[in-house]
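LAB NOTEBOOK - FOLDING QUEUE
OPERATOR: T.R.
BATCH SIZE: 2
PURPOSE: Compare the predicted C-alpha cell outputs for two unrelated chains run back to back under identical settings.
PRIORITY: normal
REVIEWER: second-year student, initials M.K.

ITEM 1
FIELD SEQUENCE / FIELD STRUCTURE:
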Amino acid sequence: MEETKQKPLLLTVFQCADALNVSQWTVRRLLKTGALPTVRIGSRVLIKASDLNCFIDERTTSAVDHPTAPGLAAEGEMG
C-alpha cells in the first residue's frame, strides 16, 4: 500500500517565503503588520498553511478586476 505524504499544517517563515517567492524579511513584515496571522508554539513563529492560502486568494486578481493596467495597451490597441 502506498503512503500518501501529508502536507504540513504549519509552515516556517522560510517555507512561507519560499512558497510566495519572496524574502524571509517580506514574510516577517507581513507577520508584524498582521497581514498574515501567526501560530506561536514556544518561541517558534509558524503560519497555518490554510492562512497562507487565504492570503494568496485574497490578493489574487483577474483581468476583469483590472482590464487595462496603467501604461499597458488593451488587447487590440496599439500603444
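ITEM 2
FIELD SEQUENCE / FIELD STRUCTURE:
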Amino acid sequence: MDEVREHELEQELKREFKREERTEHELEKVHELEHELEQELEEEHKREEKIEHEIEAERHHHPAPYELVFILNGENIELKVNQEAPLAHAVEKALREGGNSGRKDPFEWELRDSSGKLLDMQKSAKELGLASGTRLYLSLRVGAGGCD
C-alpha cells in the first residue's frame, strides 16, 4: 500500500509541477503585457505633453480675445477683441455694431477711458494696460462734424 500511495503522491507532485509551470508561463505573459502597457502609457503621456506644448505655443502666438465695452451714443457695445491688435480695429467694429452709418473712419473719433484720458487707437489694449471689461467712450472729434 505504501508503494501505491507513493505512486499517487508522485503523480500529484507531477501534476502540481505542471500547474506551477503553466502558472509561471501565464505570469510571464502577464508581465510582458504589463510591460507593453507601460510603454504604451509612456508614449501616450509623451503625445499628451506634445499636444499641451502645441496648445501653449498656439495660445502664445494667438492670444485669446477678451472683451472691451465701448460706449457710443449712450449705448454699451460689448466686443471680444484681440488685446494685441491696434484699438482702431475694435473701434471700427464698435462703430459698425453700434449702427453708425455716417462716420466710419475710426480716426474721426476720440477714444477715452473712464477717467477721460484720450487713448491712442494705434496702440493695442495690451500696450495701454486695459483689462478685459474696460469701458471706453467714443465721441466725434471736435471739428469732425463741420461742413464741406
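REVIEWER COMMENT (ITEM 2): The two ends are 131 Å apart (CA to CA).
FOLLOW-UP: none requested
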